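Standup notes
- HV: blocked on the assembly model, inputs below
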Amino acid sequence: MTTGSLATAKVSRQWSPGAVIDCDVHNEIKSRDDLKPYLARRWHEAYDNVAVLPSGQTGLVVGARPHRDIFRRDAVPAEGPPGSDLGLLREQHLDRYNVARALLHPVLVVLRNPTYGILGREVISALNRWMQAEWLEQDDRLFGAVSVTVEDGQGAADEIRRTADCDRFVKVMMTIQTREGLGHPRYWPMYEAAAERDMPIAAHVGGFSGTHMAAGWPVYWIESHVSYPQVYAAQVMSLVCSGVFDRIPNLRFVLEEGGVAWVPALMWRADHSWRTMRAGVAHLQEPPSQIIRRHFAFTTQPLDEPEKPEYLREVLAQLDMMDSIFFASDYPHWDFDDPSRVLTSRQVDDHTRERILFHNADRFFPFP
Amino acid sequence: MTNTSTPLIDSDVHCAVTRDDLMPYVSEYWRETLETTNQREPGSPAMTYPDWNTALRTRKGDLSLDRLRTDVLDDASYAILYCYYGVEAVTHPYRAEVTATAVNRWLQEHWLDQDSRLRASAVVTPQYPEMAVREIERVAEDPRFVQILLPARAPAGYGHQQYWPILRAAERHGLRVAITAGGGSGAPPTPVGWAGSFYEEYNLAPTLFQSHILSLVMSGIFAECPDLRVVLAESGWTWLPPLMWRMDQEWKAVHREVPWVKDAPSSYVRSFFKLTTQPFDSPESPAHLRALLDHIGSDDMLMYSSDYPHKYLHGNDELLSVPALESREKIRWRTAAALYGLDVRDGG
């Protein structure tokens, strides 16, 4: 596990003033055919016929987001969907914002394909081969997340081990919505395989199971988007209570796109109730806030926007995890954060800003 | 424990009822049915966890009016009773309705008639709105029922239009809507399913209350029912500011979807919701607590509660002793007195 204070950590040779490590950038296939060179021919017909409901596998149509799709209008390349053109990614994002390293993941491709089963394993494996050959080996600044069959822990473990020859994969991508809480043992084989490579598990918005809200399905899209922190909180508690961190001490999670402001109150409640309800979780030997601080990290986009900017400073003090927050732009999605404008001086000091934009992630991920 | 020189209203105390208690209040048909069939008592499934029993479960034997007088009413001018009985978990519609009515009649005779300092939450059937409306109309004739009780664990947010008849009836009859911890709707208690321990579930209980705030504000019910007021009881409250921020943040981007939400969602939260003080999941330092109270952004939302007879290691004393806490009197009694229309003589 990566630990130690910034003072003792070596300053990365890739750092320069203003350099950014962007921990959440999304790439895309231009068309479904892009994966076929990496997929055994006997699976092509089934792959062509994968039917994913336009509104997700539940079939529900929850409200309407404010745009027809989820992309920045200016991020559409001449050919293919946003995120599918490496040239445009370089020009529009990597070069423009001094992005020294970008952690890529084709999240929408994962969400359009089976999350378990043999076809799911084959497609995910093809996706990782495509990722390695057509992105990670094309630009020194690109690093990736291993895509996995999120509901098939053993399949995920096999795929993580298969990709071990490519050290440009630096994390594993899970969806935040899962069939069981992430602490359920069905997911543990994946965690063990990731920990072998000291790779954190990134849990990102998306997934097919459960609701966004603790109390049933949202009615409006705004409810579905506001209620995501509830899912993140549920996953944090599931993992903390599962005891998996005793079994895999170097297991770490990056919670992406969930914000951070909800975390302190969860830690306060968990610590208070741990003192009164120890009997039911006798395996927890320390206050849960310590487990959370040791095993979890967060990305900035979307960063919480309190009513006064200085409130964010106070929330970050309550959180007390300044080594564990990483910049993310979410390029090319519509709620993109510009690294030159995010985190103003009223929210964080310059030193902290630099850590969030670069050094924290530099130390956290197993970069080669 | 508390300073008796100024008034106090305890906004959340519990009592417990059993099936046997209800027999005098049901018809001969139901007495026979309840006695001779295997229909178990309703309740929240969390009660099966052993640590629930030791930490939070309200058992009938723990509570008598005499004990409540000694432990609570000696200090308080009024106490608001909650008698959770799991009627929302009863799928048989007629058994659900008859049970709710029986609980409320038992409350009237065994508690409200016995001590004039008591006010009560009426039990209703959220799963059957027409029956709930009938029960609201029945209990509204007794002004000692000051609110209806809805369990936090629910198959949908309470802003869902299936619940609007209940919310409208409550407003029409001057009853507040109190959402309280627990519930047995059949739905799992977390967005990712069933929890592995009561501890895990307990720590996620705030997400249920967050769901209901979000649902109620975005639904537009407060434009329909401007006099509706919602009480979150035993909800915790230190989680509230980040929810308000995220609601406001998203609303700025997507308000077109909910045009009936005319102002920042946080302004609706501050206008229409009250929260009881226990459990108080306090921050780790006094400075963080001070900041949190600023973030709440209203001195008129918190109402003192003991959550009696539940035991906590700390709570109200820590909150009420915050230096320069200008809202101390409001927390102790003024906010609850105004909300429930209770006559409290200043100076006790």
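- HV (later): unblocked. Chain B touches chain A through 75 residues (CB under 8 Å). Residues 46-52 of chain B have pLDDT under 50 and may be disordered.
- Next: hand off to the docking folks.
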